[in-house]
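Structure (tokenized):
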């Protein structure tokens, strides 16, 4: 026999668990009665895509997206891969979508960044849609960098994990 959709209260409980009354805090956001997300100080969503750390920050109706794109090979470890890696790094910005940037950080890490406008009020659906769109759009650029000798950053996040 199928279990009932609504479970009876367990012993010691007055009834089913109470739902949160909006506005309520959910992770790095305050959720308004209409479902709008209001970022709290220092809020970011972090996730991994293809083993690379990614981050999304919501502010002023925009989402700032960033992904660790890899690392330039060190001369002491893979000197033959450096010229190809630098050639790919030099040519990649012209191939990126409008508004995207490639940054070379002081520790040899590469970071792809973009911003996207979100509808007001911003909901979880709009935010997740922007994250998924960014992650899927990353693939050809990550492939291009990898084929040129850029390596995944050490300690890259484990694929399939998400952290807020």
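Design, position by position:
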């Amino acid at each position: 026999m199928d279990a009932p959709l609504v479970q009876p209260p367990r012993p010691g409980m007055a009834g089913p668990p109470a739902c949160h009354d909006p506005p309520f805090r959910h992770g790095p956001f305050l959720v308004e009665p209409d479902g709008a997300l209001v970022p709290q100080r220092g809020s970011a969503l972090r996730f991994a895509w293809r083993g690379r750390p990614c981050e999304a920050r919501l502010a002023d109706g925009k989402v700032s997206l960033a992904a660790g794109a890899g690392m330039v090979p060190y001369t002491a470890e893979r000197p033959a891969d450096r010229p190809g890696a630098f050639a790919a790094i030099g040519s990649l910005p012209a191939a990126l979508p409008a508004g995207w940037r490639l940054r070379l950080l002081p520790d040899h890490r590469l970071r792809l960044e973009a911003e996207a406008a979100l509808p007001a009020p911003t909901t979880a659906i709009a935010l997740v849609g922007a994250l998924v769109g960014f992650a899927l759009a990353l693939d050809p650029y990550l492939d291009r960098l990898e084929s040129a000798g850029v390596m995944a950053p050490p300690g890259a996040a484990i694929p399939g994990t998400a952290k807020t």
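Reviewer-requested clarification: The beta strands are 24-26, 29-31, 37-39, 45-49, 52-59, 62-71, 101-104, 109-117, 162-163. The chain has one domain: 42-158.
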